Amino acid sequence: MTALATATSFSLASLESFLESRHEPQWLLEQRRAAWRMFSELDWPDRREEEWTRTDIRLFKLDKYAWPPAVSDATRMPASVLQEGVQLAGASAALDSRPVASHLDSRWAEQGVLFGSLDQMLVDHGERLRPFLQRRIVNPYHDKFAALQAACWSGGHVLFVPRGVAIELPLHVFSALTDDGVDMGRTLVVLEDGAEATVLAETASRSETSGGFHCGATEILMGRGATLRFVNLQDWGHGVWHFAQQRALVGRDATLQWTIAALGSRLSKVNQHVSLVGEGASCQVNGVLFTEGKQHLTYHTLQHHEAQHCRSDFLYKAALQDRSRTVWRGMIKVDPGAQKTDGYQRNDNLLLSDQARADSIPGLEIEADDVRCTHGSTTGNVDEELIFYAMTRGFTRREAVRMIVSGFFQQIFDRITIESVRDALGQAIAARVREYQ
User: Fold this and answer.
1) Quick check: pTM over 0.85?
2) Can you give the three-state secondary structure of 352-383, one letter per residue?
C-alpha cells in the first residue's frame, strides 16, 4: 500500500505523501509548502472579524475529512444540469479532487487551445502555465482556507485560449463529490488578447443530502479585448461545507460576463472579486441564490476599479424559504487613478418564509473624483395579492409561488445567452419552491 493510500487527514505528513505522488516541478512544490506553512500559522476565522461576523463555522471540523481522498467510483458521476442539450467544444470532469476525464475538439486543439485537467496540463504544458500560476491571481494567504487550498489543490481544470482565437461553442467543467468527500479543485481560465470563450462550470454531489468539504479557487485572467462568458452553478449536497476564493483580472477593453447560481451546500462562504486592471474594461456579474431548510450562504463581492474608463455592473438576487439565511456584502472600490468609473451594484431579496433572513450590506470606497457609483438593496415578502390573482386564474398556490419566484429571477436569466442553460437554471429553482406560508 502506498503512502498516498494510507494518508487520512490534513497534516504535513499527508501533504508530503500527496506531493510525492504528483511529480510536480520544484517551483510549484515550493509554492505549496509555503502555503502550508502559512496555513499552519494562521488562526481559523473568528466571528469578531468583520468578514466573518455573520457566518458561524464553529461546527466545521477539518479533521472529519480525509486527505488525500480515496479513489472513488468515477462511473457514478452526478447528473449534469448545465451540459444537458448543449453542444460543447470540450468537457473536463473531476470527482473527489481527482481527474476523471477530459476532451477537447481537435479544431480548437490545433489552434493552440489548452483545456482539461489542470493536473495533467501541468505535466504536459507546465512551463506554458507557470507564469499564470505564479502570478497568484487569488491571494493564497487571504485566510486559513485560502492557504489550505493553495497547498492542497488538485482535480482542477484549466482553459488557455491563445491570442485572437474565438471558441464558438461552450466548454464544460464539472467537479463532483461523493458523500463526505473532499474537493480541493482549482479552476484557471486564461484568455490572451482578443480571445473569446464561454465556460460552463458546475459543482454537484451525488445526492441532495450528501455531506462533504469543498475548498476551491477560481482564477480568471483576460488580455486586451478578450471576451468571456462564465456561468457557474453550485449545487452541492445540503451537508457540504463550501469555501471558495474567486477572482478575475480584466484587461484593457476586455469584457467579462460572470453568472453564478448557488443552490446547494450547508454553509457557503465565497469571496468573488473582479479587478478591472486595464482602461476600458467592463464586467457584468449576476448572482442567483436560492436557499431552503437551514442553509446559510454568504457571498462577498468586490468591484475593484484600478484603471480609468471602466464599467462594472453587479446584480445579486436571492430567494429564501424555511429558516435559511443569506449574507451579501458588496463593495465598489475605486483607486485614485480610476477616473471616469461607472460602477453599479444591487441586491434584491425575496423572503418565502417569515423565518428566513437576508442580510444585505452594500458599500463604496471611492478615491477618485470623476466617477459615477451607485448601489441599492431591497428585501420583501411575496405579495399575497399576486398569489391570489394567479389562483383566481386556475393556478394552485404552489404554482403561483413558483411563477412569482421565476419572475423575480427573470432579469438575470435573460442575460444568459445559452437558452438551454437559462431554462435549466429556472427549472432547477422552480423544483425547489414550496408553498409560501
Assistant:
1) yes
2) CCCCCEEEEEEEEEECCCCEEEEEEEEEEECC
